[in-house]
Write a structure and sequence with these properties.
The protein is an alpha/beta fold. Helices cover 20% and strands 31% of the residues. The chain has ten helices and 34 strands. The longest helix is centred in the middle third of the chain and has 21 residues. Bound molecules: uridine-diphosphate-N-acetylglucosamine (UD1) and magnesium ion.
Length: 443
């Protein structure tokens, strides 16, 4: 039991209008994961009682959560509740829907649009005993955020951008959208919220002034935008992804991955690395990849694949479902749904829906013709096969071990082990035709 951490309520019921998207805001992706995943993962690490408040796109988001956080839902560590948005719109309305469900006496409240929040920061918010704790962020450009107005050393109120006077807009201390409360404080004060503001919404932030007026001292926990930034627009989304990438790459380099010009590299948050790996500039790793003791050269793209003891690229494209072991993949090679073990494919090839065995050499320009216009077919290549350049392997086709395929072959039938296969037409020469054709004499 993680009782000391209290409950956590995540507010994710908003419409997300500023994203200008049909997709709900918290379902937008950062480094391959949905924004809500980041917040939920940290919250579920910090607490055994997490409540997610939804309203807009309730069905789509809750279906996703039920499928992807099934274990936590089953164990009642994560519950979903619906905001009474018709009657109580706004972040104040959202917390109203959830606080009474909390099983602990302290409640951390997090905006659902803060994907960079960490478990450590959540624990920090909860480590003070004040009835209300507020996370504060200093921003060079505070626009869009609620400004934190102080009186002396005390936090007095939060003024939303749309309600702020000109002088208040200069304030650079802003509300991060992460709070901690005693359950009793919420029970005593939530009904005091009103919607007398520019947006006609119930603001959770008005609890600050309510506390101030009641002489309740609010504790402030300061953080930086690398942890606390909120995402309201696609521009924010890009900034948050950049910051998340930076964090992920720092962790990876600390654990031993070498990166050349790390700011040019993109790594999906689901990717895993083991042993000594080198990623050169411009490398893109997408999806759930596993990369072990391998060298990925400049501008290669790896998608949902496993790469072990291999070197890839430059400029290679490893598409989903590849398993590549002890293999050399050179420039302009594309693979898809292919298993390669101890293979050399140095140049300009397409290897799709293929299995290729040990010590096999794939010549430049080899293409597995895996698609006949209706269905995909498999190419199986055995061990010690030498495939000459510019060869088409028309699938389905199997090449057994120990076969030599001459350059320019179009292979449509499976050969026997030990064969040399050739499909080229015999070479013919017509002597001195050049000179006749261009009507000039040999020099
Ligand atoms: C909010 C804060 C602002 C703070 C900023 C930090 C309020 C009134 N303002 O503004 O002081 O500086 O976050 O990023 O709280 N939501 C609901 N139900 C609703 C409306 C919103 O659950 O009816 C959820 C949203 O899905 C979102 C979060 O609450 O995850 C914050 O809402 P948003 O509209 O992004 O508020 P901001 O304008 O960013
Ligand atoms: Mg926001």
């Amino acid at each position: 039991m993680k009782d000391k951490f209290g409950s956590i309520v995540i507010l994710a019921a908003g419409a997300g209008t500023r994203m200008k998207s049909a997709a709900p805001k918290v379902m937008h992706e950062i480094s391959g994961r949905k924004m809500i995943d980041f917040v939920l993962n940290e919250a579920l690490n910090a607490s055994n009682d997490v409540i997610l408040v939804l309203y807009h796109e309730f069905d789509a988001i809750s279906k996703y959560i039920n499928e992807n956080f099934m274990n936590f839902i089953t164990h009642n560590n994560l519950r979903i509740t619906r905001q009474d948005h018709e009657n109580f719109p706004g972040t104040g309305g959202a917390i109203k829907a959830a606080f009474s469900l909390a099983r602990h006496d302290r409640i951390v409240v997090l905006n659902g649009d803060m994907p960079l929040i960490t478990e450590e920061f959540i624990n920090n918010l909860n480590s003070t005993e004040n009835e209300m704790v507020l996370a504060i962020l200093e921003m060079d450009d505070p626009s869009g955020y609620g400004r934190v107005i102080t009186r002396g050393s005390l936090v007095q109120k939060i003024v939303e951008e749309k309600d702020a006077m000109a002088s208040e807009k200069f304030v650079r201390s802003v509300n991060a959208g992460a709070y901690s409360f005693s359950k009793k404080f919420l029970a005593d004060n939530l009904d005091k919220l009103d919607n007398n503001n520019a947006q006609k919404e119930y603001y959770i932030t008005d609890l600050v002034e309510i506390a101030f007026k009641a002489g309740i001292e609010i504790a402030a926990v300061r953080g930086n935008k690398e942890i606390l930034m909120g995402v309201n627009s696609k521009e924010d989304l890009a900034i948050a992804e950049f910051l998340q990438q930076k964090r992920k790459k720092q962790i990876l380099t600390k654990s031993g991955v070498i990166m050349r010009l790390p700011d040019t590299i993109y790594i999906d948050d689901r990717a895993e690395f083991e042993g000594e790996c080198i990623l050169e500039n411009g490398v893109v790793i997408i999806g759930k990849c596993k990369i072990k003791n391998s060298h990925i050269k400049a501008h290669s793209v790896i998608e949902e694949s496993e790469i072990v003891e291999s070197d890839i690229g430059p400029m290679a494209h490893i598409r989903p479902k590849c398993a590549i072991y002890e293999t050399h993949i050179g420039n302009f090679v594309e693979t898809k749904n292919a298993t390669l073990k101890e293979v050399k494919a140095g140049h300009l090839s397409y290897l799709g829906d293929a299995e290729i065995g040990e010590n096999t050499n794939i010549g430049a320009g080899t293409i597995t013709c895996n698609y006949d216009g209706m269905a995909k077919h498999k190419t199986i290549i055995g061990k010690n096969v030498f495939i000459g350049s510019d060869t088409q392997l028309v699938a389905p086709v199997t090449i057994p071990d120990n076969v030599l395929i001459g350059a320019g072959t179009t292979l449509t039938k499976s050969p026997n082990s030990g064969d040399l296969v050739l499909t080229r037409s015999p070479q013919t020469s017509i002597a001195n035709f050049f000179y006749k054709f261009f009507k000039n004499e040999p020099k």
